Amino acid sequence: xxxxxxxxxxxxxxxxxxxxxxxxxxxxxxxxxxxxxxxxxxxxxxxxxxxxxxxxxxxxxxxxxxxxxxxxxxxxxxxxxxxxxxxxxxxxxxxxxxxxxxxxxxxxxxxxxxxxxxxxxxxxxxxxxxxxxxxxxxxxxxxxxxxxxxxxxxxxxxxxxxxxxxxxxxxxxxxxxxxxxxxxxxxxxxxxxxxxxxxxxxxxxxxxxxxxxxxxxxxxxxxxxxxxx
Length: 229
What we know:
Elements lengths: L2 H10 L6 H13 L17 E2 L5 E5 L7 H4 L7 H12 L20 E5 L12 H16 L6 E5 H14 L16 E3 L4 E5 L4 H5 L5 H15 L4
Helix pairs in contact: 4-8, 5-6
């Protein structure tokens, strides 16, 4: 990883700015889920993950309490991640369709995965204050990812966060603001914005989000990222 990015992600993992999130992430790491009682939980803010030369940026909501908050890598160790990484593999962004833990051989190409909020929140629901406190970390991260052309937003929260992120970086956001939806697509000039339903169990188990649906959005992201070459 680029030295600047590596230093940035190290600083992310040391953040203690949101008391409610710090208390929750550390309590979860201490009490653990029974299935993982013999594992050492990460229990800190989760760094982003992927290819520093990525043209496609994926923006999620926040780490899962017993997923990334346990393993220390975005979308790793839970069903949402299983669904997402399988899709990334099918669409050529990942070298393997699974993600168990750091060091498992997973590598991403042309893709970087981050989140609006870096700590696991209670009930998977960060407050607006926590969102606004954390978002500058991702804004600074984006400054270190010069090739990003496409932003794929995983869910409504990721969509809203991405719009705030891009506005903070000076990207003109049209009025009325672009509306989220699965398959939504907006050309913002500097980047293309794509929306997909979040790969949560609530969405994938009910069929609201299917593998072909997610593949279509990721395939479109690849197409847009390569436009003009």
